[in-house]
Amino acid sequence: MKSDENVEQGIIDKIGNIDAGRPNLGLLMPVFMYRFFFISVQEKLKERFGQSEADRVLFDAGFLAGNEFCETFISAEGDVKKFLVSLQTAFKEQRLGVLQLEDMDLNSLYFEISILEDVYCSGVEHSDRFVCSMCEGFLAGIFSFYFKRIFEAKELEAWTGTNPKSTFELKPKKIKKSS
């Protein structure tokens, strides 16, 4: 916990003492219930602000969570390969999904990441648009924290009955130069 009252608490600090609060039910809940609550929030954001703004809010929330997730669960010590192994391990241990590195170019810091059994969207049939804006933000937040520069993430492929994974592209965000 942060001791200074003027310092804003991080997300992790706001979660509370789950062991004390749930002595009989413990830390875990079914993915069904997580999705039930998350999709309810997503639908209300879309209803209130429109799809584009809802996607922006979810991306930003994911980005914030990704920063704190990286800081808390991923070893940022060592080279990129150690980081990626730590990332894969953290995803599996926290039951977020099975993360796979599909492609990378260390010169340009380009990464293509796939997630199987994703906690949010594996098993969800997608219509004409991809719906993983929060996951994009989460991954961008993780990579931004590790590399100490802003990354962008874009879903390339969504889970379908014939494609059992979601695939994302991650790369440093280009800074627009002012004229």
TrEMBL record:
- PANTHER family per the UniProt record, alphabetical: DNA-DIRECTED RNA POLYMERASE SUBUNIT I, SLR0144 PROTEIN
Q: Which domain of life is it from?
A: Bacteria
- Please name the source species: Thermodesulfobium acidiphilum
Question: Which classification does the entry list for the species?
Answer: Bacteria, Pseudomonadati, Thermodesulfobiota, Thermodesulfobiia, Thermodesulfobiales
Q: Which SMART domains match?
A: V4R
Q: What is this protein called?
A: 4-vinyl reductase 4VR domain-containing protein
Q: In this protein, which residues make up the domain named 4-vinyl reductase 4VR?
A: 110-172
